[in-house]
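Changelog-linked ticket: adenine example.
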Amino acid sequence: MLGIIGAMDEEVARLKEQMEDAQVQTWAGMEFYRGRINGKEAVVVRSGIGKVNAAVCAQILADRYEVSAIVNTGIAGSLDGKIDIGDIVLSTDALQHDMDATNFGYTLGQIPRMEVLSFQADRRLLELARACCKEVNPDIHVYEGRVVSGDQFVSSQEKKEWLIRNFKGSCTEMEGAAIAQAAYLNEIPFLIIRAISDKADNSATMDYPAFEAQAIDHSVNLMLEMIRRYEA
Ligand code: ADE
């Protein structure tokens, strides 16, 4: 069974609407909707914003629902000039840009005493998402790259350039790498799907509200088709 996390109501509303026989349980203040979407068992949940909410949510999916995979769907700021508003980024891997133990010799972004710098997304989920996206969103571009997450809405050219220079990320948001870390610790395959709502620069706070709905539409279209085709 797939576990699907969106940070905000808007990101999961249509998925919940499509769900049949939904059973709702509340854990840690989060409502977990379990039922059938496009003929498949799934759990859909709004985690709330930020890394801690996201990690707690992913752990509940692991412990209480024993999901076979976790997909994080939502929106993000682009970190690459060729990745435009409305386009989709599928995660190859994810890391936390606000983790800094460089004073102890760790690479920026690396969590001390963990073996990996970034958490690798599942190849099979990535390939499934790529195939589905071509079908349901034929007019937009799909990219694969690193998702860099932190407890910060990125809206300055300086910070954007810092993220690109240090991490070579494709997009930035506030939950993906925390979900990735929780999935890694629990040995659950994961994928992050993010549609671009802004360019994470000085125009981000203006663009974000204008393009949020369109971006969410693209990621939800993809998610619905992925659920249809997903085999555990
Ligand atoms: N989600 C969407 N756009 C974002 C940005 N610029 N920074 C962080 N999270 C985001």
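Closing comment: Example verified and attached. The chain has a mean pLDDT of 96. The beta strands are 2-6, 20-27, 30-37, 40-46, 69-78, 88-96, 119-120, 142-149, 171-173, 190-198.
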